[in-house]
Amino acid sequence: MNTKYIFVTGGVVSSLGKGIISASIGKLLQARGYKVTIQKFDPYINIDPGTLNPYEHGECYVTVDGMETDLDLGHYERFTGIRTTRENSQTTGKIYQAVIDKERRGDYLGKTIQVVPHITNEIKARIKANATREHFDFVITEIGGTIGDIESAPFMEAIRQLRWEMGRNAINIHLTYVPYLRAAGELKTKPTQHSVKELQSMGIQPDILILRTEMHLEKGLLQKVASFCNVEPDCVVQSEDLPSIYEVPLNMQKQGLDAAIIRKLGEEVGPTPEMKAWRSFVDKEKNATEELHIGLVGKYDLQDAYKSIRESLSLAAVYNDCKAKLHFVNSEEITKDNVSERLAGLAGVIICPGFGQRGIEGKLSAAEYTRTHDIPTFGICLGMQMMVIEFARNVLGYADANSSEMAKTTHNVIDIMEDQKNITNMGGTMRLGAYGCDLEDGSKVRSIYGAQHIEERHRHRYEFNNAFREEYEAAGMKCVGKNPESDLVEIVEIPEKKWYIGTQFHPEYSSSVLNPHPLFMDFIKNIK
Ligand code: GLN
């Protein structure tokens, strides 16, 4: 079959969950046996979100091939299990950079370079890029931002042109919001009508509308929206608030969203897939009652900053028939004196990734407390580095031990990599993406993974300093995962503790609903 293109746009307000809807559509089409990919086009000017503060944009998600991307790519991967690549994440910055590079090279043969057609052509080419390298039945393209934003105009124009060129091979799905006005006791469709009008004024007629709502919408209201917006009645569906985002695909399937998409794109609608494994996950999630209290020691007091870690813990908890109750513990507020009180009642602790000096002393106090009280602890990236520094200070006896990211000392047990030393640009210059790791026979991680060689994704500049490796091993902290080419230490563990493991990589990027990550699974199993 020809590749079909689905464009997902959003209107009225941001944060409606376009990423979850795009991921759900991907899941539903995949469940019907189609080959699907999902990509995000963000209208902001940063080349990638790698240099953005998490307060601005939440977590930075890293693809296997080392692109720093928007956290929605995490949803795409967790829902569908597909591996996205750098082509799946585009921004205005990336697009302009490519156009300007071409202009400098003289590729445009003396033409005046304009938003239309040069920028829009670049957007169109990038929307089609994934499917020119590999066959996909469906390419879902989510456009970031809200309709009407100045910076999204070139993207809308590109979609308008593509829909015209592709005919029945492309549709637009528009996600809007239906607010409930308490004082009037009414649900209001006017914002949706306005949003569709705005879309139409750009030459785009939506094929399918998804209405986000906090209250159930009656059929009559959906029909009213359909007739006001020139959309077929069965092409208006609602996306009500649900207890879990993982129920969204099932709710969309129940309303026939996937069937409507396939029909609109001119394909035969086959039988509705049962989605047994997904349903059984959702049932398990609903039935889990036992609560597991887990602390996230970090400096960003924002749920989205540690999105993939949160989801990885929640998924693993469901498979262990319990609910992960996650407690953010602000590392900036932890001191040696209050650490026992701050971590009281927690069955396990995650020491979170991060950059820079702020909050690291609190992370070190937490690592010391959990190590000396044998509380299961999982250090991720900067978290692993904190475990290593704490061990040097309090076990090896090097009071000035630190990472060279924070201070130059005589005991930089975490040090900058040789090939990072002369880098001055901040964007895209870290050790990024998947690298191999050999696991030590007889170690905990070797049995947790059930494999000798693994690949995991990285996002860091600093490393365990191999000059200290023997001292660590002799004192009980083992280097149990190493990169075979560079000999860099990727995992440390203290075997005599219940669960005290630190990874230089980010295992949270590769958890998915149907394939929870073995490290998170084992961590949960051990704190139950
Ligand atoms: N700041 C540390 C480094 O660059 C850790 C990064 C992280 O936690 N992702 O090595």
> Which bin fits the share of residues in helices?
25-40%
Oligomer: single chain
Number of strands: 23
Q: In percent, how much strand structure appears in the residues?
A: 15-25%
- Give the biggest sheet: 9 strands, mixed
Mass-distribution shape:
globular
The stretches of 5 or more residues where confidence is low (pLDDT under 50) are none
- Helices, by number, come to 18
Summarize this, please?
The chain is of the alpha/beta class. Glutamine is lined by residues 353-355, 381-382, 405, 459-462.
Explain what this protein looks like in three dimensions.
- A hairpin with a 6-residue loop joins strand 22 and strand 23.
- This protein has 528 residues and is of the alpha/beta class.
- The chain starts with a strand and ends with a helix.
- The structure holds glutamine (GLN).
- Residues 353-355, 381-382, 405, 459-462 line the site of glutamine.
